[in-house]
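Quiz preparation item.
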């Protein structure tokens, strides 16, 4: 049976805004939950950036912090999924107005 660990507490990084784990570590893999461009912290949700580029940078900073918190790094990522908003096709992030991008990743620990 593989060792599976849900990571909710990352040193130096705030707890998730919602009831989910930042990442799940399974053996030598870390699965990072989808990160959207919000200001880290336990306060009210605040979207960071008005453009796709600004929001992508923030989401990637969050992915990097989570990876480093579990002993991995961006250069160990083996797969990335980016979810982009297309208001003409789908109302992405309808529950958090202003969200334009979400990013999840799988990496080696």
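Solution:
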């Amino acid at each position: 049976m593989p060792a599976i660990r849900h990571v909710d507490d990352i040193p130096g990084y705030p707890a998730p805004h919602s009831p989910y784990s930042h990442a799940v570590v399974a053996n030598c893999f870390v699965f990072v939950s989808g990160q959207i461009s919000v200001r880290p912290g336990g306060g009210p949700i605040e979207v960071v950036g008005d453009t796709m580029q600004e929001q992508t940078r923030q989401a990637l900073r969050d992915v990097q912090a989570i990876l480093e918190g579990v002993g991995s790094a961006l250069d160990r990522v083996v797969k990335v999924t980016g979810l982009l908003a297309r208001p003409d096709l789908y109302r992405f992030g309808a529950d958090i107005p202003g969200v334009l991008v979400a990013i999840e990743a799988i990496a080696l620990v």
